[in-house]
């Protein structure tokens, strides 16, 4: 496939106002200006490409007959971008429509469950996957919720497919841990431990210490038998994957940073509602922030200082950040709207787009494959009628692994 006549926003290099993207199989092969494309495709094919104006009927046109082997997709000035990325969600685990019966988000019977795997609960038939695709979202970091101090392993996967194993890009991709109100109330309300913030921190420290001792035995050949409950900590302690820390309030964020530094592990600060209040400390820590959900209500005390200005403040401090809907807390298809609201509150247009493309790819450690348009990366591409942060913009095409998985159709009123 060759996408032509698009406004190409690579999200790493300069924008090409009128350019093309060539796809070979499931990878991006080539990107350039239309001038370059027409020079390469000289003669009859170039003449036909330049005379497409006579053939255009709709807002966009597919002209297959121009390529002997390639489908030519003329997008007529539409925005061609890397597929959008949701950096923190519970899609497929907290399914839409079915309520409690399809809610596998939290194993609320044990506060420490590092051995749980998101891939064992994600249902690709969740309608939210299709809604993500319609919104130009091509990949997502999905995993368990925040009731437990240690919730289990997240997975990073594509949004198209019927078999999770075939959709996964990275698993395990992160280890979920949680601070603040959620674990405190989930177990405290049952008269169980932990029931305080101190208890949450102590339990996480105890668990990490046991994991360190286990790893030391394994590294020195003194381990007699692998432990199913401790083995999942090895990639965390090796800094191959980060802790994914649910933390809203400033003091909870600081506790998360403190423990991560004590055990020399990497971490992403997820939600970070009050991160703008301690931005200097966060910058010093070197940890990125996944901000959101900004569209939810202030339903609990720890998110009383929720504000879309947080994104601007983090960006000005040069803290790497991304945006999240925390689906289904707010709906995944509104990810680009969250970016638009961040721009409305002072973030630059470019940084708003980065917060839902290349930034989450870097934070989730998959930027070698997704997050920008670049030769050699996965052909995950979203084509919009204009700026995706504009509420009236339509998703014209969503392409995953080089295949068109969504195409906009004008709705009929009849």
Notes on the protein architecture:
With 414 residues, the chain is α/β, with parallel strands linked by helices. Helix content is 27%, strand content 23%. The chain is globular, with a radius of gyration of 23 Å. Mean pLDDT is 92; it is low at 49-59 and 63-68.
Q: Regarding quaternary structure, how should these chains be classified?
A: single chain
Q: What ranges have pLDDT less than 50 throughout 5 or more consecutive residues?
A: 49-59, 63-68
Number of strand elements: 17
- Computed Rg: 23 Å
Averaged pLDDT: 92
> How far apart are the first and last residues' alpha carbons, in Å?
34 Å
In short:
The chain is an alpha/beta fold. It has 13 helices and 17 strands.
Please specify the SSE layout and strand pairing.
Elements (H helix, E strand, L loop, with lengths): L1 E7 L7 E9 L2 E7 H7 L3 H7 L10 E3 L8 E3 L4 E4 L1 E6 L37 H8 L2 E6 L7 E9 L5 H4 E11 L2 H8 L8 H23 L14 H4 L5 E5 L2 H13 L4 E5 L7 H7 L3 E3 L17 H8 L4 E3 L11 H10 L4 H6 L3 H6 L17 E4 L10 E6 L2 E5 L7
Parallel strand pairs: 1-5, 1-6, 7-8, 10-11, 11-12, 12-13, 13-14
Antiparallel strand pairs: 1-2, 2-3, 4-5, 6-15, 8-9, 9-10, 15-16, 16-17
Helix pairs in contact: 1-2, 6-8
